[in-house]
TrEMBL record:
This is A-factor biosynthesis hotdog domain-containing protein. Residues 21-153, 191-305 form the A-factor biosynthesis hotdog domain. It comes from Streptomyces boncukensis. Transmembrane segments: none annotated. It comes from the Bacteria. It holds the Pfam family AfsA. InterPro entries: AfsA-like, AfsA_hotdog_dom, HotDog_dom_sf. GO terms for molecular function: transferase activity.
Length: 341
């Protein structure tokens, strides 16, 4: 990046953003703080990462890479509405998503971290000249330090088109009411979590296989009614599956590459399956996590992880992982059912 462009990144002044521009109901879930246009295809967007976020934790001294992902996800509606004149009420649909992050650069040093995203977009025009899809690439900085990068392609659909596509399943309030109750979660420590209410995996009856544990009352993953399992929950499932594979060693998902093929419905069980992949060029472990529903692959995520060298890990109490062998299903049934928050 040219030095002049980096200086402009550091000079961005954040301003509050209305939550509807990032498709959130709870203003406390809004991470973006401001934006400005550099050119018709290039933008600077500021964000604030709280160290004490209720879901995207920093308990290992490292900002959760999924907070980076959520920050980029919020870019999609923001730039669609303010830069491409997409009306509120249109549906944004992920085709694919990828990111890479530097775990050392993600070290949490302050109560709040101010970050800046340099965004480049290529739009695809549809009928009537309205934007129908966007290719987005962003680099994320803290001051002059590069934290990582991300890229995605997403489609934009008018409400009438979305209703035809989804049919009866497109009614968000009905889908939430008809959602299957959440399955019993695996122990939080296996997936790098401190609370059972944040676990999105349940025992699946076979090694490397889990049922999705979908709690529609979760305040972060279900900030507002939706008609399908959110993409952020699917990415969280991939992260948690990669942590189970590494247990008891804590790991950080330093990279993900996801392809979305179809919606995961709320009314039927869905299953996550993990498959080990060859290590990358830096000898980091990799795993592919696929989500299936009704014998169809809905999405597939390749996760690259790095070990966390810290004594403050939530996984400090090492032990075997019964979920991989289902050796004690009765013990799992004795665990409390997650409440609707």
């Amino acid at each position: 990046m040219p030095k002049s462009e980096m200086n402009s990144v550091q000079a961005v002044r954040p301003t509050p953003l209305p939550q509807e521009l990032v498709h959130k109901h709870n203003k406390d879930e809004v991470l973006l703080t401001g934006w400005r246009e550099l050119s018709p295809q290039c933008f600077e967007v500021t964000a604030r990462w709280p160290r004490d976020h209720s879901f995207y934790l920093s308990d290992q001294g490292i900002h959760d890479p999924l907070m980076l992902v959520e920050t980029v996800r919020q870019l999609l509606p923001l730039l669609s509405h303010v830069a491409y004149d997409v009306p509120l009420g249109h549906q944004l649909i992920w085709d694919d998503f990828s990111y890479q992050a530097d775990p050392e650069a993600l070290r949490a040093r302050d109560p709040h971290t101010e970050v800046c995203l340099v965004v480049r977009c290529d739009s695809v025009a549809g009928r009537g000249g309205r934007t129908a899809a966007v290719l987005l690439h962003t680099e994320i900085f803290r001051g002059g330090e590069r934290l990582g990068e991300a890229g995605t392609r997403f489609a934009i659909q008018r409400p009438a088109v979305y209703r035809r596509l989804r049919g009866e399943r497109g009614d968000a309030h009905r889908a939430m009411a008809d959602a299957a109750p959440p399955a019993l979660p695996v122990p939080a420590r296996w997936v790098g979590r401190t609370s059972p209410y944040d676990v999105v995996l349940s025992s699946g009856g076979a090694p490397g296989r889990w049922q999705l544990c979908v709690d529609t009352g979760h305040p972060a993953l279900f900030d507002h009614p939706v008609d399908h399992v959110p993409g952020m929950l699917l990415l969280e499932a991939a992260r948690q599956a990669s942590q189970v594979a590494a247990y008891p060693q804590p790991v950080v998902p330093v990279a993900m590459r996801t392809e979305f093929h179809r919606y995961v419905e709320l009314c039927a069980p869905a299953w996550a399956e993990a498959q080990a992949l060859p290590a990358d060029a830096e000898r980091r472990s990799r795993v592919r996590v696929s989500v299936h529903q009704e014998d169809t692959v809905c999405c597939s995520t390749d996760v690259t992880v790095e070990r966390v060298l810290t004594s403050a890990s939530v996984l400090a109490d090492a032990g075997s992982v019964p979920v991989l062998s289902d050796s004690d299903p009765l013990a799992e049934r004795r665990r409390p059912t997650p409440a609707v928050l």
